[in-house]
Amino acid sequence: KSKSKPDFSNRGMSLEEDIAATNEYYRVANIAIIHKKPTPIQIVNVDYPKRSAAVIKEAYFKQASTTDFNGVYRGRYIDFEAKETKNKSSFPLSNIHQHQIDHMKDCHKHEGICFLIIKFSVHDETYLLPAHHFFPYWDDQFNGGRKSIPYNDIKARGVLLPFHYQARVDYAKVLDKLYF
Amino acid sequence: KSKSKPDFSNRGMSLEEDIAATNEYYRVANIAIIHKKPTPIQIVNVDYPKRSAAVIKEAYFKQASTTDFNGVYRGRYIDFEAKETKNKSSFPLSNIHQHQIDHMKDCHKHEGICFLIIKFSVHDETYLLPAHHFFPYWDDQFNGGRKSIPYNDIKARGVLLPFHYQARVDYAKVLDKLYF
Ligand SMILES: [Mg+2]
Ligand SMILES: [Mg+2]
């Protein structure tokens, strides 16, 4: 760990937890309303006991048809996916699924603000990568291109997200600069 | 059933199914991207069999902390809840939960487009009621006001949603008039 990093590093917290904390802060501080979507579940069998809550007895995880997070910021539609990688020098595209890209392309077409939040845990750095920078990397992999995005490209095309005590992944500030 | 109604009535389909079909049409026809959020589930016990998919063995339904539908239309954030009632002369407020109102008030504050879609199954009529018309009825019930919205008020303040074969609950057209 570099000595120049501040003491209140977000190490130890998962990216999802940091974003959840940030979203809650944004809600309470009246900055934005962003929620994580529930994991979609295929329910097969439910028990209805007489005097207590229904119990799901058999269910399966389904592929999500969208990204994980969406909501509203300054009237605009916000949509993003968050991914953490232990990889040092690139972000493997296998972390993302085709249906998530399809969804982001759809939203992008309708002028939603779409992006990825990518955390390189080894560097303890988290980047916001606008979807329109990401799409070409995704599409190129099917035309003989590489199966990952170099760390240096993300550094160059993305924006490093500042860590603040309350907004651990302070993406709203970056959206101000990029989209408004 | 009134004789003036067209043959391809949506009777028999649930409001949720009609909205799902509409959303799918909007997506394919490149009109809007709106999805229903998955039902939130509290997972307690999961089995990981050796050669097959993980099976959820015990789980419970959780209260949703948001509304059912959201997405993007013409760059704006869209958020709504859909409710069907068999009541003839009013919409009982007990159909809606406080946390759904809190969420809609939050989104409304951030300039999202928020509304209810209310179907009176007896009349075979479906209305879009903008959230800012709904909020006063909600708040008044705690100050001695009535616990339901009169059908006639919804008729007066809401907009009757047209039924089309592909867009069974064609709310996008109504949003054009109300919000753009
Ligand atoms: Mg995810
Ligand atoms: Mg509902």
From TrEMBL, chains A, B:
Q: Which UniProt keywords apply?
A: Cytoplasm, DNA damage, DNA recombination, DNA repair, Endonuclease, Hydrolase, Magnesium, Metal-binding, Nuclease
Q: So what does this one do?
A: Endonuclease that resolves Holliday junction intermediates in genetic recombination. Cleaves mobile four-strand junctions by introducing symmetrical nicks in paired strands. Promotes annealing of linear ssDNA with homologous dsDNA. Required for DNA repair, homologous recombination and chromosome segregation.
What is this enzyme's EC? 3.1.21.10
Q: Which family does it belong to?
A: Belongs to the RecU family.
Task: Give the gene that encodes this protein.
Answer: recU
According to its UniProt entry, this protein's organism is: Halobacillus seohaensis
Give the top-level enzyme category: hydrolase
Q: What is this protein called?
A: Holliday junction resolvase RecU
- Record-marked site positions (Transition state stabilizer): 83
What detail does the entry give on cofactor binding? Binds 1 Mg(2+) ion per subunit.
Q: What does the record give as the reaction this protein catalyses?
A: Endonucleolytic cleavage at a junction such as a reciprocal single-stranded crossover between two homologous DNA duplexes (Holliday junction)
Subcellular location(s) of the protein:
Cytoplasm
Where Mg(2+) is bound, by residue?
66, 68, 81, 100
* Cofactor(s) this protein cannot do without: Mg(2+)
What's the superkingdom here?
Bacteria
